[in-house]
Design goal:
The complex is a heterotrimer of chains A (about 70), B (about 425) and C (about 260). With about 70 residues, chain A is mainly β. Chain A is built from 1 helix and 5 strands, in the order ββαβββ. Helix content of chain A is about 10%, strand content about 30%. Chain B is α/β, with parallel strands linked by helices and about 425 residues long. Chain B has one domain: TIM Barrel. Chain B has 17 helices and 11 strands. The chains are: A mainly beta (about 70), B alpha/beta (about 425), C alpha/beta (about 260). Chains in contact: A-C, B-C. At the A-C interface, β3 and β5 of A face β4, β5 and α2 of C. Chain B: Keywords: 4Fe-4S, Iron, Iron-sulfur, Lyase, Metal-binding, S-adenosyl-L-methionine. Chain B: One of its GO terms (molecular function) is 2-iminoacetate synthase activity. Chain B: Pfam families: BATS, Radical_SAM.
Chain lengths: ~70, ~425, ~260
């Protein structure tokens, strides 16, 4: 199992690029942190998710000063 | 103003100089090409990287004080905090009619930062040997004066005499000769001074950071260096020979002193040497920029005007009258409310009394700019041998008299409020 | 109101005319474009959050092109978290600007100055244009300058409080003593308060909640725009005489002068 944005997903063996596309993300509009390290966009296709990996996918949201965590 | 007072005539030839020495002196005076480049450091001089000098020079270069009007001055006086532009207006001729109002404002600022106090101190000259040829100074190497350097025993004797009068703060001065008055010699004087005084300041030739650190360890905590004039072109024509000729090394002395751990630094232009408004601007900005860089430091200003010296009675401060001096001091106070302002014994007792009520925070008393003559001064007993003075003083009041006079002006004389750490 | 074309300011090598930095939180994406236009803003702040696949909208599509994006690190509770968020923000590909916000207090949302200094130092080293949000303290502001900040963003009042210039005296000290642009951030509730901060010499104003909670957001954006310009013009023009009541007459101080 792979932990993606806090939720366990059955994504073992899948590349980051493939998983993003299947889950409906626009890969141009997100940044990916893979096991605590930022993953360069050109590596999305070659990075294969393994059991125990932790992935964070982030994007921009509206925010001013001190907005709560939920935006 | 008549022709005679427009320029000072500084050059005086002593009969005691050899033909060779006279020839060199005359060449220095008349042939600029034989003089060193004033921007070129001597090899042993430390060069620090700092942008303060460039900033001050740029501001001074662009300062056109004729541009300011009464409206600018009025606006400046109405601002709660005085910015650089406001200060420029306050230094301008347009501010002259506002002198009383500036004095009232200056007194309020002084009161806010220093209360009703005035600090008393005394300078102690321990040597008058000098390797520089600064044409306006009584200590200059070509001037025929009695030279003297006090030995350890004599220094201690002078310090005892001064300390017995009740003084707690001392300023140790030398002529600028590193060979005659070495850093170690001055350091030893500082160590001795710590025994007799709570607060020790130095006014000596500029040194490197590590030497300032050494002197700080010996007990000195304040360093004063007068830039004399911030106008490089003019400076070059007045400081013809010696280490003092190196203008940027002198400019950076206070910053090196702070880097070496000194608590406070003092500044001054010698008013009357060059355009006094631009020199006053540069002096204050020198502090202003350093304060932003070293906010923990203490800063003080002096405001000497040119005075007659031995062998040249005619030297005078030209266009810097008492009113102009008062204007500069009020402007300094309004722009730098936190800075100490020292008023020299070159000024009259009446001027010093008056200015202490407005903005001065520190006044010297029991002053002698000669060497080894405090005993004579304090007791009336003549010493066997004394060295000649740097300049003529005007206010000759003793420490006790000054203490009484300041009290009767409604001020609280303070001898010390200092902690050495 | 006329805008002085000559009067610009810069951050990280970018030159700006507008002195209004607009927050994009707490209101709908559909209003952002109008808000930016009516505010005349050239800089808009954004937050970095976990992407949600269900929300197909990308906020960047709503922000007029040419606008400089200023991501913030809101949500960070330590310097390390702020650095992490900043790096992710840069990876999102909208430049090197970052506004540091570090709060260890979720009730008042007051910034943690010490952590902010640490994060500023690290991010400046990594080449970010760092704009730290801070509680107005002169010593901290000096440390931020040393750490490599591009501007300092003191709060005027607690975030979202709309209480105005509660820290006025301390912000004035920063304006007087710090050589970087001082951007007044947080707590500004009314255009008049933004105007007052600009009269004091602030370089710019950042506001969000005051607009988001207004009855008519675009109209309030325009009101802030005009107030900020008015304050800036007043600052440049040089404030005139303020008559004080009961001026004290006293003995002349300069009677002793001789010449």
């Amino acid at each position: 199992m792979v932990k993606i944005n806090g939720a366990k997903q059955d994504a073992d063996g899948c590349t980051v690029a493939k998983w993003l596309a299947e889950a409906g993300y626009d890969s141009r509009a997100v940044a990916v942190e893979y096991n605590d390290v930022i993953l360069p966009k050109e590596d999305y296709g070659s990075t294969v998710l393994r059991n125990g990996d932790v992935v964070e996918i982030v994007c921009f949201m509206g925010g001013g000063c001190g907005c709560r965590k939920d935006g | 103003m008549n022709e005679e007072t427009k320029e000072n005539h500084f050059f005086v030839d002593s009969e005691k100089l050899s033909e060779k020495a006279l020839a060199k002196k005359h060449q220095l005076e008349t042939d600029p090409s034989c003089r060193r480049d004033p921007m070129e450091y001597f090899p042993e001089m430390e060069q620090i990287s700092s942008d303060v000098r460039d900033k001050v020079v740029a501001q001074m270069g662009s300062y056109d004080y004729t541009r300011y009007t009464a409206a600018d001055v009025r606006r400046a006086l109405n601002h709660e905090t005085c910015g650089v532009e406001d200060f420029k207006a306050l230094l301008s001729p347009a501010a002259e009619p506002f002198l009383e109002e500036m004095a009232q404002r200056a007194r309020r600022e002084t009161g806010r930062h220093f209360g009703n106090t005035v600090y008393l101190f005394t300078p102690l000259y321990i040597a008058n040997y000098c390797e520089n040829y600064c044409v306006y100074c009584g200590f200059n190497c070509y001037n025929d004066i009695q030279r003297l350097q006090l030995n350890a025993e004599q220094i201690e004797h002078e310090m005892k005499v001064i300390a017995d009068s009740g003084m707690e703060e001392i300023l140790i001065l030398t002529g600028e000769s590193k060979t005659k008055s070495s850093v170690e010699y001055i350091g030893d004087a500082c160590r001795m001074a710590r025994k007799y005084f709570k607060n020790v300041g130095l006014e000596i030739y500029p040194v490197n950071t590590e030497e300032y650190r050494y002197l700080h360890e010996c007990g000195a905590d304040y360093v004063t260096v007068f830039q004399e004039t911030y106008d490089l072109q003019k400076y070059e024509t007045l400081h013809l020979m010696g280490h003092k000729r190196v203008w940027p090394y002198r400019f950076e002395a206070q910053e090196r002193a702070l880097m070496g751990g000194m608590r406070g630094v003092g500044f001054s232009a010698l008013l009357g040497l060059s355009d006094f408004r631009r020199d006053a601007l540069a002096t204050a900005l020198h502090i202003w920029y350093l304060q932003r860089k070293y906010p923990q430091a203490e800063f003080s200003l002096s405001c000497p005007r040119l005075r007659p010296i031995i062998n040249n009675e005619k030297i005078n401060p030209l266009d810097v009258g008492e009113k102009q001096l008062c204007q500069i001091l009020c402007a300094y106070r309004i722009f730098l409310p936190y800075a100490g302002i020292t008023v020299s014994s070159r000024e009259s007792a009446a001027f010093r009394n008056g200015i202490a009520r407005i903005c001065a925070t520190k006044i010297s008393a029991g002053v002698s700019t000669g060497i080894g003559d405090h005993e004579e001064k304090y007791t009336g007993r003549e010493e066997e041998e004394t060295g000649d003075a740097q300049f003529e003083i005007c206010d000759t009041r003793s420490f006790r008299k000054m203490y009484e006079d300041m009290s009767s002006e409604g001020l609280q004389p303070v001898l010390n409020d200092y902690l050495y750490v | 109101m006329a805008m002085n074309e000559e009067d610009t300011w810069s951050l990280g090598g970018h030159r700006f005319h507008s002195r209004f930095i607009l927050g994009s939180g707490k209101y709908s994406l559909q209003l952002i474009e109008a808000a930016v236009k009516d505010a005349g803003a050239e800089i808009v702040t954004l937050a970095v959050r976990r992407a949600n696949t269900k929300k197909k909208e990308n906020i960047l599509d709503y922000i007029p092109s040419g606008t400089t994006l200023l991501p913030n690190t809101s949500g960070a509770r330590s310097a390390e978290e702020a650095v992490r968020i900043a790096r992710l923000a840069r990876e999102l590909g909208c430049g090197d600007f970052i506004k540091i916000e570090i709060m260890r207090d979720s009730k008042y949302l007051l910034p943690d100055n010490q952590e902010t200094i640490r994060a500023t130092e690290q991010l400046a080293k990594e080449g970010f244009v760092v704009l730290p949000y801070m509680y107005p303290d002169l010593n901290v502001a000096r440390d931020l300058v040393q750490a490599g900040a591009a501007a300092v963003m003191p709060l005027a009042a607690p975030i979202g409080s709309n209480k105005g210039l509660a820290t006025k005296e301390f912000i004035q000290i920063l304006i007087d003593e710090i050589d970087l642009p001082i951007i007044v951030d947080a707590g500004i509730g009314k255009p008049s308060e933004a105007c007052a901060a600009m009269e004091m010499g602030a370089a710019a104003i950042m506001a969000n909640t005051a607009l988001a909670t207004a009855g008519n957001l675009p109209m309030m954006a325009a009101a802030f725009r005009d107030a900020i310009r008015a304050g800036r013009n007043a600052y440049l023009a040089g404030l005139g005489r303020v008559l004080t009541r009961g001026a004290s007459a006293s003995d002349p101080l300069t009677g002793f002068l001789r010449d």
